[in-house]
Structure formats: C-alpha cells, structure tokens
Amino acid sequence: MIALKFIILRYLLLQDTNPLAGLWFETTLVLLFMAAVELILKRGKLWVYIVFDVFLSLLFIGMLIYERYFGTVPTYYDLSQLNQVGSVNESMWLLLNGTDVLFLADLVLLLVVWLFTRKFKWTYPVNQTSNVAMASILIASLVITIVNFQTSKHETILDSALFAKENGLFTTQFVQYYQDHSQNEKAYAFSGDDQNVTQERIEELKGSDYIPMSEHENFGIAEGRNLIVVQIESLQDIVIGQSLNGQEITPNINDWLEESTYFTDVYQQIGSGNTSDAEYLMNTSLYPLGSKATTDEITGKKVPSLPRMLKERGYYSVTMHADEVNYWNRDELYPALGFDDYYAKEFYGEKDTVGFGPSDGLFYDKSIQALGDISENHENFYAHVLSLTSHTPFEMPEDKRGLDLPEKYQDTLTGNYLQSVHYADKALGEFFQDLKDKGLWENSVIALYGDHSGLHGKLLKKEDQELLKDFNGERYSLLNRFNIPFIVGVPGKEGMAQEVDHIGGQIDMMPTLLNLLGVEPDSLYFGHNLLHYSNNLLGMRYYVPTSSFFNNETFYIAKNSRFDPRILDLGTNQRIENEFNDPQSAFKQEREDILQLLQWSDAYFESF
Fold first, then answer.
1. Could you tell me which residues come within 8 angstroms of residue 192 by beta carbon, excluding any fewer than 6 positions away?
2. What pTM was estimated for this model as a whole?
3. Cα 340 to Cα 344: distance, rounded to the nearest angstrom
4. By C-alpha distance, which of 157, 186, 184, 185 is closest to 173?
C-alpha cells in the first residue's frame, strides 16, 4: 500500500506516469526500513508500521499542499521551517484536494477493522529462512539507495521537482543535504584570481558597458534628502491604474504617479524566504540564496548594504514591520544589514488586527509618530516601512471593504485580493498625507514596491483565472504574476513624472535609489541603476527553475518536472518556444551567464 502511495504522490507532485520509477527510487528505502524493523524488533511491529504509514501519509499531503501554494517541491530544509507557516496557514486549508484522501484510505479501512474487531493481529512464523530473506532485502535496498545517491550527488539541482523526478524524492533530500553541508559543494570563497569579479564584469554579463554611477545623468539630484521606502505586501503591478466598475483599485498610488517615476517592467526575484528575501534584495542588491531563506544563513554576518552606505553619510536607519521580529529570523537580519533600530509587533501592539497583525492603518499611524521623533533627533534618516494587511487569504473585515464588487467577484480569491489592495492603498494615502503634514514629504525620496505576488499557485481556481482575464484584458500568466510595481518620487523635483520600461528586478532598486541620493557604492552589487541602463539579465530561482531569466525581450523558464522549457515574449505575453528549433538549447549563453551571476553573488555572500 505504501508503494502505491508513492506512485500516486509522484504522479500528483511530479506528473510522473512511470510507476517503476516510484518503485525503484522510493520503495527501496521503505523496504530498507521495514526489513530493519523485521530484523530488530520482536514485538510491536504493527504499531511501528501504523505510525510510519500515518507519518508518510501526512507528509505526502503536506508536500502536495506546499507545492500547490509555492509551486515547487519542498526539500528537507523547507520541512524544517514549519515554524514559519503562521503567515500562510489560513491559506493552506484552501489547498486541500479531494485526491488527498487517497493517502488516508488504508488508515480509514484499518480503523474500521479495529472498530469491529477491537484488535489487530500480526502473526506469522519467524524462522531462519525469513531472517535471511529480510537481511537480503535490507542489503539490496541499501545498495540501491547508496547507488542512487552516489550517481547523483554531484549533479546541480536547478529544479528540485525535476531532480526528484529523475533521481527520486528521497535521493533529492539526501543530495540537497549533502550539497548544503559539504565543504566541497559550498560556494567557494570569494578570493583568488579565478574570482576577480568586478562591477565591469557583472555589467558586461548583463549586456552593457559599465559606467560609474557618478557619471549617470540623474546622479545626486536628491542628495541630502531622507529616504522612505515602502514595501507593500503582495502588491502586483496588475492592479496599478486599473478600475473595476468605475472604481480605481489604487487611487492614491495612481495620483502619486503623476509626479513620480514608475518603473513598469520590474519583476520579483525572491527565494524561499519570500517577504524577508524582498527586504534583503532591496537593501543589498544581492541575489537571495534560493532554496534556503537567506535570513537563516545571515547570522553573524556584516553584509554590505544600503543602511551601511547611508550611515557613512550620516543617516540613521530604521526598519518598521508589525510582525514578530523573530519571524524569518529578522532579529538576525537587521543587525547583519546594519540597521540602527527596528520597530516590530511589540511596538505596534495587537489592536485592530487584520489577518495575523495590526491593520495597515494602525501601522502607519504609529510609524509616522516614530518617524517624527526620529527626524527631530537626526539630520537624515532612512526608513524601510513594510505593510502587512494585504496578505493571503485577503479576507477583510466589513468596515475595511471599500470596493463595491460585482457579484461574480464576491467571495472569490480575486475579489478578496482587490479589496485588500484597495484598503492598503487607502491606508498608504493617509500615510502620505501624514508625511506632508509632518513636513517630511518635501525633503525625502519616497519609494514603493511590491514584495511578491499575491495571486499565485493553486489558490487560483478556474473562476479566478476567468476573473483575472476579465480584469486584466488578457490571460493571467507568470509575467503578470511576477510583475511588481516600483515607483520613486522626489517631491518638488522637475522631470520625475515619467514611465520607464527598462527591464528590472528587485535587485535593481537599491542602485537606482543610491544614484538619486548621489551615493557611489564602494562594494559589489548585482543590480544596476534602472534610470541609466536599458539592457538587463535577471535571474530567478525557487519559484521557477534556476537558470530561468529575464532579458530585454523574453522570460525564459527552464525545464521542470511538468513542462519543457517555456519562453514568454515580454511584449505580447505569449509563449513563443515553438519558434525555436530546440527550446531546450535556446539562450544557452544567457543561461550560462545568469548561473555565473548567481554563483558570484552566493560566493560574495559567503565571504562575509
């Protein structure tokens, strides 16, 4: 029965239709365990098998739910981060599927038998022959498991699902653990002639000639101003400037666009750390680690960062987020990034709670009070302000629903999302007004961006896909999902009201802001100033296979367990892989270049 469960799991999780793969890769390890039980235990075997069956069944269901939410197969590391699921546990219940009961069917049948008989029997004659048979099964299973591991331990895991499909789910965990903990497999130290990484080489791989930031056209136009960066939870570009039944979804942001620079083609690049990775990207212009939350590897490091660069120029830096500070290890992240102070849930309290934290309205009210005090005590400050309310599952209290939704949008994920973003925009507009009333608006640079998508994975039902097509005017694709807004305002400065369509990512936000503030970084960074460079090469991993990338015209999505390579045209939002003779070999140089950039960034991070 357990073997059948593995076959079902591989089909649902990996779209693997070969039952022999499940038997070869997965069942051998189960047989190893069972043979060991038979040889070691004399009594209580049945209960060991029942507990083992329950454990595997719940594990399989958990893996399927994880894949439906995040779109990727979890590794041993993800399973070790179960303490971090608080932000998404309400959404998890929405992802339960009828097929999940298949993994519990035998347990239900066993329970029924027990209810009728009130006992289980597990008896069979044990003799020397059966012991020899069990020992043979144990040895054979162990040999197969070792061979599977040895033949794949040095392969690069670009996509955990594809690797699991080709090498086995258990083998993938062993290889991932081995590569994460082996000194030979770690990112090598950032030193030596073979590294020789310069800003010129980084920019060259992205298709441009490097020009020192001090020579860029807008360098220093906001020198000496405060910097206020607002990260909006789950804000996607799809809602900016859009209306539903004559109602603007983000009216305050839309008004602000009339005096700000709006980067329309910026994409998320987070890894498994999600929101915390977005914080890291914004403040370092380095790639997150991907399969691991960067915050869990940052303890004790001193990473070159925006707070540190501004501190050298007299800035006092704070970060503000109404969540628990130890969530995603932020209590280690903030010192590593060089923030002078942080404001977290302990400061904001638990009044007016929406979802799992204080509402954005309360959050901004208390934040503006703190910023007022900071501005009185420091000549310049940098504040990274992170909203929270517009988080999945987007269920808003009645008094915070500002949109009159058409009937077909009501009680849908899409409708709830639009309501939550509309409220987030309302609270943001009040925050902007408070900044003006406090006299902080005119002498600051104000920036805003989304941390990651909100409408994603199998949370989206068929009706949501239809609603999004109706709302967006085209099919909802991965481009729509990953596209986030990035908006920068320099109040009172002429020429800032513009749209910039240069391809960019979250890794480019820090250099763009430093350019305006007149700060030339004295350490490496892997993004660039979006106001200057028009060419780009951007990597993504975790949510798409590593070696996927954006360039000026296309979004290349590398092969995974379900799909061959997909290529999306950025201009038309249409798939164009059929235009290539061999999509698997297309863009070979770009894929090598993005892997090189990722390797350099990881090695640079490891060097601190």
1. none
2. 0.90
3. 14
4. 157
pLDDT band at 187 (very low <50, low <70, confident <90, very high): very low
Structure tokens at 114: 């027990």
The pLDDT tens digits for 94-128 are: 678 888 888 988 888 877 877 777 665 555 555 55
Residue 550 reports pLDDT greater than 90 = yes
Nearest-angstrom CA–CA distance, 438 and 545: 46
The per-residue pLDDT for range 244-254, each reduced to its tens digit, is 999 999 999 99
H or E element in which residue 317 lies: strand 315-321
What is the C-alpha separation between 478 and 568, in angstroms, rounded?
A: 9
Q: What is the pLDDT of residue 203?
A: 97
Q: Tokens 């059948």 belong to which residue?
A: 4
In eight-state DSSP terms, residue 170 is: H
Which has the closest alpha carbon to 557: 50, 71, 106, 69? 71
For residue 153, what are the contacts with CB-CB under 8 A and spacing of at least 6? 174, 175, 178, 179
Reference 64, options 14, 3, 22, 105; nearest CA is: 14
Residues 256-284 have pLDDT tens digits of 999 999 999 999 999 988 999 999 999 99
Residue 427's nearest CA partner among 228, 232, 276 is 232
Amino acid identity for residue 460 in this structure: L
pLDDT given for residue 79 in this prediction: 67
- Cβ proximity of 237 and 450 under 8 Å: yes
**What is the pLDDT, as a whole number, of residue 193?**
42
Give SS3 for 573: coil
For tokens 């914080």, the residue is: 279
Residue 499 to residue 80: CA distance in whole angstroms: 43
The 3-class SS string of 251-286 reads HHHHHHHCCCEEEEEEECCCCCCCHHHHHHHHHHCC
- For the chain, give the mean pLDDT: 90
Task: Give me the helices (H) in 349-484, please.
Answer: 360-377, 413-437, 462-472, 478-482
DSSP character string of 207-231: TS----GGGSTTTTTTTT-EEEEEE
Q: Which residues pair with 484 in a beta bridge?
A: 266
| CA dist., res. 173 & res. 179, Å (int) | 10
DSSP three-state, residue 575:
strand
Q: Which residues share a beta bridge with 505? A: 267
* Angstrom distances, CA of residue 428 to CA of 195, 252, 411: 44, 7, 25
In the three-class reduction of DSSP (H, G, I as helix; E, B as strand; rest coil), residue 97 is classed as coil
- DSSP label at 185? T
H or E segment to which residue 248 belongs: strand 247-248
Question: Distance between alpha carbon 310 and the CA centroid of its chain, in Å?
Answer: 27
Distances, alpha carbon 608 to alpha carbons 190, 267, 278, 425, 445, in Å? 9, 27, 20, 38, 30
